[in-house]
């Protein structure tokens, strides 16, 4: 989870830099867009890996899912992450709505990460002896 949060933080920083370059009419460094996409792809993979680990671990430990709000929070985070990733690939001068969707999904994703972190703490307490 920590790596996902680090990726989210790095994406916020690189996204802000791209926004600043665009709004101030400065050329952005050529590597910045690739870095932002690479970190974003890594975050998608990390979130999907966390989902898989959580589902397998919960099924292995409890035999079923749905013991807490953590599953709901996790599924929402996965959905928001995928919405953000897909909308990022659609951003173009002709599809400005995709940029708004991307930024909006990331703003809500912050709340999702908070929720999944808080509910995850409760789940971790169940696993500890």
UniProtKB/TrEMBL annotation:
Transmembrane segments: 37-59, 71-91, 103-124
Domain of life: Bacteria
Alphabetically ordered keywords of this record: Membrane, Transmembrane, Transmembrane helix
The protein's name: DUF4079 domain-containing protein
Record organism: Chroococcidiopsis cubana SAG 39.79
């Amino acid at each position: 989870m920590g790596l996902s949060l680090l990726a989210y933080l790095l994406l916020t920083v690189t996204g802000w830099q791209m926004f600043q370059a665009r709004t101030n009419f400065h050329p952005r460094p050529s590597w910045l867009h690739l870095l932002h996409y690479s970190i974003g792809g890594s975050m998608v993979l990390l979130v999907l890996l966390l989902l898989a680990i959580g589902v397998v671990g919960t099924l292995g430990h409890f035999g079923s899912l749905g013991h807490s709000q953590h599953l709901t929070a996790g599924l929402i985070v996965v959905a928001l992450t995928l919405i953000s990733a897909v909308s990022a690939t659609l951003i173009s001068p002709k599809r400005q709505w995709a940029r708004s969707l991307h930024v909006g999904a990331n703003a809500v994703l912050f709340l999702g990460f908070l929720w999944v972190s808080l509910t995850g703490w409760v789940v971790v307490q169940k696993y500890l002896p």
